[in-house]
TrEMBL record:
Signal peptide annotation: 1-24
Domain of life: Bacteria
InterPro entries: MalM
Species, as recorded: Xenorhabdus doucetiae
Any one Gene Ontology BP term: carbohydrate transport
Protein name in the entry: Maltose operon periplasmic protein
Keywords for this protein: Signal
Keyword Signal listed: yes
GO cellular component: periplasmic space
Recorded name of the encoding gene: malM
Length: 316
């Protein structure tokens, strides 16, 4: 039993370092280049936006929402199906917003996001391919996820977030990774020749929106210091090449070519975490070891993951 538990923990951990992409759905359907199809933000009329019920959400808040046939709908141009509309505070500094769309029963809502200033002028556009597939972890399930970093211009009280899906999105699907493949690759075994599961994109789904305060480095400015009605929204992620690296990278906005690298931890701190991970696994406390690993990597440790995997393999 203990060996099975350790294997599952290692498998879930290693799942996070395998890349994934979206593919055209179904046999007999012409493949769709989703980056081309969703390259331009939709031109929604002001009257359409003013009719929406914008749900307020505060900083340090998390909002879960189920989109179904009873949800607000927009069927205009490429936009189709249930939508989510949020009003965010614009007078509390910069915001970091994590949008998650959960994969359930091999179905998922593929989100696009339009951000509007206080006057409902479009300011930022995050196409669906910005929200990348994330494999399940110890405390999370298969999902599409992306992080938005926004800085409201001064003088505004609210900015607005519209989440929607499109007709091209509904003709594509998300390919997941079979956990057995991730585990075999992570420990150096031959990868089994088994098909990966595929999640079909649908008009409904389950979303989670987490909002917190954030430093404004590299953020998208929402709203204009000097009004300019002809300004087009900044498209985020449209020119980013799909990464083939085993380490997932979050696409930066178009104003910043690369994120600042995480500084490595001091040698003493790194040794402290490695020793603590070793002791925790030796005592059978895998949960504590995982928490130590997360904290060490957040601080920039390059060896904590190797220590964890080595100890897990030795424990078996």
């Amino acid at each position: 039993m203990k060996k099975k538990l350790l294997s599952l923990c290692l498998s879930a951990l290693l799942c996070n370092v395998i890349p994934a992409v979206s593919y055209a759905a179904g046999s007999g359907i012409e493949p769709i280049d989703i980056e081309t199809s969703n390259a331009v933000a939709p031109a929604l009329s002001l009257s359409t936006l003013q009719k929406l019920q914008w749900q307020p959400i505060n900083t340090h808040g998390t909002q879960s929402m189920v989109l179904n046939s009873s949800s607000q709908q927009i069927n205009d141009g490429h936009v189709q199906g249930a939508i989510a509309a949020f009003a965010l505070p614009a007078n509390q500094g910069s915001l970091e917003i994590t949008l998650t769309s959960l994969i359930k029963d091999k179905q998922v809502y593929s989100p696009n996001v339009l951000v509007f200033d206080e006057q409902l002028h479009p300011a930022a556009f995050y196409p669906s391919h910005y929200f990348r597939y994330q494999q399940p972890g110890i405390m999370s399930t298969d999902r599409l996820e992306g992080v938005l970093k926004l800085t409201p211009a001064l003088g505004q009280q609210r900015i607005y977030l519209l989440i929607y899906t499109t007709r091209p999105d509904l003709q594509t699907s998300t390919q997941m990774v079979d956990p057995a493949k991730a585990y075999a690759k992570g420990i150096g075994n031959s990868v089994p020749n088994i098909p990966d599961p595929v999640a079909r994109h649908t008009e409904i789904g389950s979303l989670t929106l987490k909002v917190q305060s954030e430093s404004n480095t590299g953020n998208i400015l929402i709203g204009q210091v000097f009004s300019s009605p002809d300004t087009k929204p900044v498209t985020v992620g449209s020119t980013q090449a799909v990464s083939t690296s085993p380490i997932r990278t979050t696409p930066a906005n178009v104003a910043q070519s690369a994120a600042s690298p995480v500084k490595p931890v001091l040698n003493d701190t790194e040794q402290y975490f490695n020793d603590a991970i070793t002791r925790a696994i030796s005592h059978g406390d895998i949960d504590k070891a995982l928490k130590l690993l997360d904290e060490a990597e957040r601080l920039g440790s390059p060896t904590a993951r190797k220590t964890f995997i080595k100890m897990i393999k030795n424990k078996k």
